[in-house]
Every structure is written in structure tokens, then in C-alpha cells.
Amino acid sequence: MKISNLFARMTEIKNDTGEYVEIREVERGDKSGGRLVVRIPDKDLTLIRAKKFLDHSSYDGVPRSVHVIATANGTRTTMVLTAQYFNTNGRVTFEVENGKLVAKPETIPQTSTFMRRIGFSPPSSRVPS
């Protein structure tokens, strides 16, 4: 992890799909499938900077979307999210329900990695589906 991310607001991403999950950042107009940001094994949890995708859009003025890809029953399923999504939600769990990829977001007060590591874990509130 970069030292600059130590005090950054972070979003937890958990994979409960039964397979790996890929998160790709796709610029508007990109036909190649975008850039792989992270690949998360099943039952694993990772942290990303909450404003990661928003910052990239603001640097060059090109809007981006976030593609989350999982395999369900041998079929690839994709969910497209806005760049704002991970900034809005402090914790997101990805699951497969009825063959479709679903995101279960929770709004928690955004805290830095440093605050999480010293044991400050604010209460969460699951966003109704």
C-alpha cells in the first residue's frame, strides 16, 4: 500500500460470489474493456481509495465507469457502476443471486486506513436493496 493512502478515505470491497471478482476502470469510448484495477478472490476483502475513480476522471476530464465482473454458473456477468459509487459507499459486498451479480452497499463514515488499523471502526448501516 502506498504511504499516501495511509490517511486516505478507503472503501472496503468484499467478494462473496463463489468465484473471483475483477474490477475494471473504463474510460468513455474505450472498447478494449478498460484497465484492471483489482482482482479479488472469493471470500476475500480489499481496500481501495474511495475517490480513486473520481480522481482519475478529474485529472483528464474523461468520464469513467467501473465494471465489476464475476463468473456465475460458468457465465460471466458484469455490473456497471458510476465512478462516484465507491466514494458514496464505505463498504460494498458483491454476491451472485439467481445468476446475476449484485452489490450490497453499506454507508459507513469514511475512515482512513490508519484509523481502521488502530481499531476505530464506525458503525455501519446497510443500504436497503
Topology of this protein?
Elements: E1 10-16, E2 21-27, E3 35-40, E4 45-49, H1 52-60, E5 64-72, E6 75-82, H2 85-88, E7 91-97, E8 100-107, H3 113-117, E9 125-126
Parallel strand pairs: 1-7
Antiparallel strand pairs: 1-4, 2-3, 2-5, 5-6, 7-8, 8-9
Largest sheet: 5 strands, mixed
Beta-strand segment tally = 9
Principal-axis shape: globular
Overall pLDDT metric: 78
Termini separation comes to 32 Å
Radius of gyration from the alpha-carbon trace, in angstroms: 15 Å
Secondary-structure content class: mainly beta
Number of domains: 1
Low-confidence spans: none
CATH topology: Immunoglobulin-like
Order of helices and strands: EEEEHEEHEEHE
Sheet-strand content, in percent, reads: over 45%
Total of helices = 3
The strand order across the widest sheet is 4-1-7-8-9
The CATH architecture comes to Sandwich
CATH class categorisation: Mainly Beta
Q: Which range best describes the helical content: under 10%, 10-25%, 25-40%, 40-55%, 55-70% or over 70%?
A: 10-25%
